[in-house]
Design goal:
Blueprint lengths: L3 H12 L2 H13 L1 E3 H7 L4 H13 L3 E6 L2 E6 L1 H17 L2
Antiparallel strand pairs: 1-3, 2-3
Helix pairs in contact: 2-4
């Protein structure tokens, strides 16, 4: 099982890509989206969108659920809180 720090490194690597950051921001601003909706707002091919979404999900930044035949994406607030606390701790311990 990866350590907390290892999980957060994976999160930061996922967000380091401009496309994934934009997709993450869009999902966050809309609270939830379907994979189809994400594809519609992007200039990318569907396999490329799926690849980026998979990395966001694997990093724990995005949750998935099903609604009929649609996959619903939403931000994992627990992970974003963990990342926020981690960064705050780094900043507060720096002197």
């Amino acid at each position: 099982m990866p350590s907390s720090e290892e999980r957060l490194i994976k999160v930061m690597k996922a967000l380091a890509d401009g496309t994934r950051l934009q997709l993450f921001k869009e999902i966050a601003s809309r609270k939830q989206m379907t994979c189809t909706e994400v594809g519609e707002i992007s200039d990318l091919a569907q396999p490329t969108v799926s690849h980026h979404l998979k990395l966001l999900v694997d990093a724990g930044l995005v949750n998935t659920g099903k609604n009929g035949r649609f996959v619903i994406l939403s931000v994992n607030k627990e992970m974003t809180s963990e990342l926020s606390e981690f960064l705050k701790n780094i900043i507060n311990t720096e002197k």
